[in-house]
Structure formats: structure tokens, C-alpha cells
Amino acid sequence: MDAPSGIRPNTAQSPCTREPSVKVPFYRHSLSPADAGPIAEVLASPFLTSGRVGERVEGMLTDYFGVRHAALVNSWTNGAVAALPALGIGAGDEVIVPAMTFIATANVVELVGATPVFSDVDESTLLLTPAGVATSITSRTRAVIPVHLYGQMADVRGIRAALGSRNVAIVEDAAHAFESVRDGSRPGAHSDAAIFSFYATKNVTCGEGGALVTNRDDLHEAFLQTRLHGMTASAADRFTSVGYRHWDMVRLGTKANLPDVLAALLPSQIHTVAERLDRRAALAARYEAGLRGAEIRWPSLVLSSTHARHLFPVHVAPQHRDTVLARLHAAGIGVTVNYRAVPTLEYYRARNAAAQRDCPISTSWGDGTLSLPLYPSLTHTEQDYVLERLLASLDGLDRDVGSAA
Ligand SMILES: *Cc1c(COP(=O)(O)O)cnc(C)c1O
């Protein structure tokens, strides 16, 4: 079956799909030249960077997430680098992060001079847990960054309860979780802030971008400054019809604002995100049906939640993972690894050798995981080929699941 007509495959050939050997790319975005209209409108206006288009998108985001404030940023990473100082977090502070995540979650903590403290994740969901947070708390803990890994939300309310009355902020890494819901709440509902990514492969994208949402008026105000050099007025506000207004700099900030040229790609995707999620969910269910009974496992579902189905990772015996990767690659199938555990990477190993030993679940998952293609324009024919090749790639490998949990 082909993708529903509402979901346009992007037919432009990326450098890797031009390779004759690629049969199923790891990722195809859903944008096309037909989506360029709003960018042309920005180009026809005198204002290219953060202005009225971005403000309109921020309004759509506050409605969608049911929060008081939304602020667009030019990446999740820069958004977090602006958010942590806005929360007063810096040198000498500790921030608890899961060991199973993309490196950016830990890197932003290092970049602001604080120390990431790795907590192991739940064996079945791969999510940071309230109990894991509780055992990682010290007198220097100032924030926790739960990651809604692959599209399933961590238990933010439970983490808040585990923190008790301590003055510890929660900043959700919602890079995979635009559509996610847990117990009736979307990201941002029970934390100090949630940050999204609109990077090229994310479920909602403008190439590079992101957004921070928060219910805290004081944090929003501080963040508008740390997002833009620490200045008290944005470019749109400095050049008004009334004339030039002086600005001041009241704190140190970075440059994390999203230009209207990119923000213009977001409204149509926010309107149609549910349709693309239906498609992702149906494809994920087909993968699960096709893999049942094989020597393969995948994260279990969190009850009473909506999974954003950002990625479809599976886990094979760690001693066979790279063989399976190579066999799928040879069959023209794009596969990636999301993720090797962060404490096992050279930079973090050198800084804290013990963290890897303290996070055996993350390490074992990271040693055996690989992600299959999952995007709205993936056809059933393509998916059946992936399933067939994946199962065939396990042929002849011993069935010992090794250190797989
Ligand atoms: C993509 C991603 C990020 C970083 O997002 P950017 O917008 O590329 O900075 C952070 N955390 C997770 C879990 C991600 O997948």
C-alpha cells in the first residue's frame, strides 16, 4: 500500500538516496516545494529574523500544549543552553540526566559549566524513573532533564514527587515528544519547562529549530533575554514605527532565536501533525506484528499515554548488533543507532569512568539497539522488505541473547 495522498513523499533525491544501492532510506521528510509559500511571504516582507510569523507560531504552540508561554529557538541545544542560565544553573551545579539519550541532553549541562549526573533508565521503557532520580540527588542537584525517549513520556509528576520540596528544576527533553501525552498531560504541564526540537528528522521540522514552553512567567521573561544576548528588547521591538529605542543588557545570554524564514514552515505541520502520527502509529504496529516471536525486543508501552512514534528502535544480542547493521546496510536499508549510552562515549568516559558501570541497563540497550526506518511516507512494500531483511539477517547467528536484559 502506498502512503495516503495527504502525506506527500518527498521525491527530491538526497545525496544518499541517489546511491543506487539504497532501497529504503532511513528517513524521508514530508515537506515539498508546495510548502514554500509561507517562506516566499517572509521574503516579500522587510523582516527576515524573529518577528510576527514566529509570534504567530508561538501562539499556536501555547494553544496546542495548553501552556502559558512558548518561545521559538534555533535548536533544542541552543534552547537548553539559554534555559539553564535562565534557571540560574551554572558552574558547581549538578543536573540529573538519563544515560540513555542523545548526547545533546548531557552536553548542554557541560556547556553551561555544570555537571551531568547520569541516571540509569527503566529496563522495559528505557525512561528515566523517579527512583533513579531519587538515588542521584545530592546537595548540589539543581535540575533534572527527563527525556521522552523515542516518543514516550517519562513520569514527570513522579519525578517531581521524588524531588520533594527541594529547589530542583525539571526541564523536559521533549525533542521526540511533540505529539506525546501521558495521563492526560502534554510536555510542559508539570515541569518548569519543556524543550522541543524541530531538527530535520524530527516529527515536526523546519530544518533546524525548536521551542521552549513554560507555565512560569518569570522563567519566560528571563528566557526571552538569555535567548537573545541578554538584551532587553528584540530586533522587532527595537525598530518600531515610533523610532529607535535604546536597549540594555541585564544578564549574559546566547543567540538562540529562530528566524521567521524558518518559522514559516511550522504552521502547516502543526495543523496536520495528528494525521502524520496516525500513519506512524499504524507503521509501528505493523513492525511489532511482523517481529513478534523473533529474537528481538523493543521498548514496552507506557500505559495511558500517547506515543509520538518518533523512532522505532529494536534490540538484538549485542554481539550481533553490528553484523545486523552491516547486513541491512548491504541490503540497501538505512538503519542508525539511537543511541549508544552517553557515559560509554570517550568524552564522558574520560570524565567519569564509574558512570558507565552505574548504568548497566542503558549500556546494554545501547550495545544492542538499532533503529528501523519509520516515517509517514514509508510504504508497506518498503516496510515488508525491511522486516524480511531484518529477520533474514539474524539467520545463522546464535540465539544466545548475551547481555541483553
Ligand atoms: C535531536 C535531539 C536533541 C537535539 O536537538 P537539536 O534541535 O538538534 O539541538 C536533543 N535531545 C534529543 C533526545 C534529541 O533527539
Characterization of this structure:
With 405 residues, this protein is an alpha/beta fold. Helices cover 37% and strands 12% of the residues. A seven-stranded mixed sheet has the order 1-8-7-5-4-2-3, sandwiched between helices. A two-stranded antiparallel ribbon has the order 6-11. Helix 13 (318-330) packs across helix 17. The longest helix is centred in the last third of the chain and has 19 residues, at 273-291. The mean pLDDT is 93. Residues 75-77, 101-102, 104-105, 147, 173, 175-176, 197, 199, 210 line the site of pyridoxal-5'-phosphate.
Helical content band: 25-40%
The amount of beta strand, in percent, is 5-15%
Low-confidence stretches: none
Structural class: alpha/beta
The count of β-strands is 13
Bound ligands: pyridoxal-5'-phosphate
Shape: globular
**Count of helical regions:** 17
List keywords for this structure.
405 residues, alpha/beta, two-stranded antiparallel sheet, 17 helices, 12% strand, binds pyridoxal-5'-phosphate
Task: Please write out the topology.
Elements (H helix, E strand, L loop, with lengths): L14 H4 L18 H8 L7 H14 L3 E5 L2 H11 L7 E5 L5 H8 L3 E5 L10 H7 L4 E4 L11 H8 L5 E5 L7 E2 L10 E5 L12 E5 L2 H10 L8 H4 E2 L2 E2 L15 H4 L2 H6 L1 H19 L13 E2 L5 E4 L2 H13 L15 H6 L1 H6 L1 H9 E4 L7 H14 L12
Helix pairs in contact: 4-5, 4-8, 6-7, 12-17, 13-16, 13-17
Pyridoxal-5'-phosphate (PLP) binds next to helix 4 and helix 5.
